[in-house]
Specification:
Helix content is 69%, strand content 0%. The chain is mainly alpha-helical and 341 residues long. It has a single domain (15-339), classed as Farnesyl Diphosphate Synthase (Orthogonal Bundle), CATH 1.10.600. Helix 1 crosses helix 3 and helix 1 packs across helix 4 (59-77). The radius of gyration is 20 Å and the shape is globular.
Length: 341
């Protein structure tokens, strides 16, 4: 099933500059080491994702967006190794990062990942309101704090396989609770305001915009579950909707994957329906010109993020065999965890 994406597709003109800067930044923070790691990372086309997701960003902002996406992927992939089966070790890595968004920079120089994230948080939050910073801090905390729970699920799956028992799969509510955390999409969505204008609170928390924001967060995660199934299912990842539906419906992967994509399409269509309500919402809330433009740019930004991600996901090599490290090299990217995480 092919998704129908009605949103306008655009890409930033600053992609090349952001790509060069991103490689320098990753290497300066020791998050990429050696030719093999750099070549593998290049296959993922991370700068293309940033350029498609934030097409209106200026050069400096696109550099920041590209660094953010690079951080997400390299950070997440470290838990595909043996480390991802040890919740306490994952928590040890994530706790200092949570501290950073709440003003505790004591551990920022303790490891490459902590130093890199401290830099990202400083650049992202500079000049933003207290309200935005509080929300963004919560979303980053949610993202980092969800990884130990994901590791716990993997550990339970591994133990069940080792003991010859059945893997315990989460229900839909449990799946969404964790997936919305580990997906990190709320932290990406926060950057729409960072690169444009902050949305007035009355509009930000209105039902239409809250629903649009949730859809824009869930659509990439649902689609990604289909794309990443091939590498996640063999390692026992329970928090994949295709895996869950296979178990619930007692069906094959094709039927389960088609069902997830059908729901993804419904969410895209629902977003389109809600977007039509934005002008009337602004009028009824009595927003002035700048406030109205902030809301409209935010809605457009959500659509650009969804369209950009789905377009990128369709051609990146990240979820294909040629975009993965060989099976005999389980710790990705020059075994970064052995160098001070």
């Amino acid at each position: 099933m092919e998704l129908t994406i009605p949103f306008q597709r655009k890409a930033s003109a600053h992609q090349s500059a952001a790509e060069a800067s991103n490689l320098d930044w990753l290497q300066a923070h020791n998050m990429l080491r050696g030719r093999e790691a750099t070549e593998l990372y290049a296959r993922w086309a991370v700068p293309d994702l940033a350029a498609r997701s934030f097409p209106e960003a200026d050069c400096e902002d696109l550099v920041l967006a590209t660094d953010l996406f690079g951080f997400y992927f390299l950070f997440d992939d470290q838990f595909d190794s043996e480390l991802g089966l040890h919740p306490t070790e994952v928590a040890r890595i994530c706790d200092p990062l949570i501290g950073i968004v709440h003003g505790d920079f004591a551990g920022a120089k303790a490891s490459p990942v902590a130093a890199a994230f401290a830099d990202l948080w400083h650049r992202s939050s500079a000049g933003m309101s207290t309200r935005w910073r509080a929300r963004a801090s919560y979303n980053w905390e949610w993202y980092f704090a969800s990884h130990p729970s994901e590791a716990l699920g993997r550990a339970r799956a591994a133990a069940a396989e080792r003991d010859g028992g059945n893997q315990e799969l989460p229900d839909r509510a449990s799946y969404l609770t964790l997936r919305r955390g580990t997906g990190g999409t709320e932290t990406v969505i926060d950057m729409i305001e960072r690169f444009a204008s902050e949305v007035p609170p009355t509009a930000f928390h209105s039902p239409p915009l809250r629903l649009m924001r949730q859809l824009a967060a869930d659509i990439p995660s649902f689609s990604n579950d289909v794309r990443s199934y091939r590498k996640e299912a063999p390692r026992g990842d329970a928090y994949n909707l295709v895996v869950i539906l296979q178990h619930q419906r007692q069906c094959g992967v094709e039927e389960a994957g088609a069902a997830v994509l059908a729901e993804t399409q419904w969410m895209i269509d629902e977003y389109t329906r809600l977007a039509v309500e934005i002008p009337e919402l602004c009028t009824r809330l009595g927003l002035d010109g700048p406030q109205r433009r902030a809301v409209e740019r935010y809605a457009d930004g959500l659509a650009s993020w969804v369209a950009g991600y789905l377009d990128w996901e369709g051609h990146t090599l990240r979820y294909r065999p040629e975009g993965e490290l060989p099976a005999d090299r389980p710790n990705h990217l020059e075994q970064l965890l052995d160098h001070g995480w």
